[in-house]
Amino acid sequence: MALVAAVALGAAPAHAETVTFTTPGIQHAYFVPTGVSRVHIVVVGAPAGGRGAVVTADVPVVSDEQLTAVIGADASDGGGGNDATSTLVAAQSGWRAIAAGGDGGSSLSPSPTGTIALDSGGVASVTITTYEPILDLAPTRLAFDRQALRHAQTKSFVVANRGNEVLMLNRSLIGGNDSRGSFTIVGDTCASGIAPAASCTVTVRFQPLVVGVHYATVLVGSQLLRNSPALVSLHGEGGPPVPPRLTALRISKLRFAPGAHATVSFRVDEDARVQLRVMALKPGVRRGGTCAVAAPGRHGRRCTRLVPYGKTVRLRPTAGTIRQKLGRLPPGRYRVRITVVGDGGTSSALTPAFRIVRKR
């Protein structure tokens, strides 16, 4: 038996599998792969002289059913002859294709969409090409950077359909030994079918809850795929907690008229307790490594003292960008000390200085 098989994995779209039978005089069996519901057939009859028929069609099939091909034999009695007649029968799906080696006897029933033509001749054959989706993942491993506890990083992988049928996927799931729940799927654009040559994206967040190495897998699959599910491996490491990061400090403007409200804004990268304290800028003199209160008779290098003003403002634990309006302040120069307290410690920073001017 001469059998030619090709599996196309790179082209998009591409037939998933092509099988050609050419050995005459025997029955050839082809089993429809799991998940395949349609095949493309080319049945060729080869004459000793003259022309042979060619039957071409896309026909429905049933997964795992057997298709029977006979090459180079008369379709009616199986005997040999100068005119090589090829037949292909799908008993379960109920259709039959005949390509005679002479000018007659060609048919396709029960008449699915196809063509019957006469060819100049050649090798009698039956070619079966499957229509099916082909799942391709890239990359197949996501390695996350080391993250402090409760800090997070996201990475994505692409799900592509390299086949020639619409790819219908089940919902992607996290599996493996990540019982600590540090990996979470936070984005999935693969809910609807993926057309041939199209793709979608799955996004995974790594947020360690305990210190140590974490492993898991993302399962992507469908009951209509041959090798399902496909896997994307996940790897990350959780480090000890660190103080929350305090960034993007700014004051709405640096000069205010009396009675105006200054607004301070900043960003915290994790849930943390926040405290704000207005600090008045007062003149002082440098004495013994400190900035002391300026007083008559005291001489030394001038410096600026930060003197707490008003009450400490305490905010409930939060993360993200925070905007806080300050109370009315008398004329003078001020800064705001912001302190954030998290599981990993405390961070503190001062805003730029701003001024409340006197009325003219």
Helix proportion: under 10%
Average pLDDT figure: 82
Q: How far apart are the termini?
A: 105 Å
Radius of gyration, Cα only, in angstroms? 38 Å
* Uncertain segments: 1-15, 75-81
Report the structural category.
mainly beta
Query: Care to count the β-strands?
Result: 28
Strand content: over 45%
User: Helix count, per DSSP?
Assistant: 0
- Order of helices and strands, N to C? EEEEEEEEEEEEEEEEEEEEEEEEEEEE
What topology does this entry show?
Elements: E1 3-7, E2 17-21, E3 27-31, E4 38-44, E5 52-60, E6 66-70, E7 86-90, E8 95-99, E9 107-109, E10 114-119, E11 125-131, E12 135-138, E13 141-143, E14 147-148, E15 153-161, E16 173-175, E17 183-188, E18 199-206, E19 212-220, E20 230-239, E21 246-251, E22 255-256, E23 263-287, E24 290-293, E25 301-325, E26 332-342, E27 345-350, E28 354-356
Parallel strand pairs: 13-20, 14-20, 22-28
Antiparallel strand pairs: 1-2, 2-11, 3-6, 4-5, 4-11, 5-10, 6-7, 7-8, 8-9, 12-15, 15-18, 16-19, 17-18, 19-20, 21-23, 23-24, 23-25, 23-26, 26-27, 26-28
Tell me what you see in this structure.
It is a single chain. Helices cover about 0% and strands about 55% of the residues. The protein contains no helices and 28 strands. The chain has about 350 residues and is mainly beta. The chain has strands at about 5, 15-20, 25-30, 40-45, 50-60, 65-70, 85-90, 95-100, 105-110, 115-120, 125-130, 135-140, 140-145, 145-150, 155-160, 175, 185-190, 200-205, 210-220, 230-240, 245-250, 255, 265-285, 290-295, 300-325, 330-340, 345-350, 355. The radius of gyration is 38 Å and the shape is rod-shaped. The strands form five sheets. Strands 21, 22, 23, 24, 25, 26, 27 and 28 form an eight-stranded mixed sheet that branches. It has a six-stranded antiparallel sheet with strand order 1-2-11-4-5-10, with no helix packed on it.
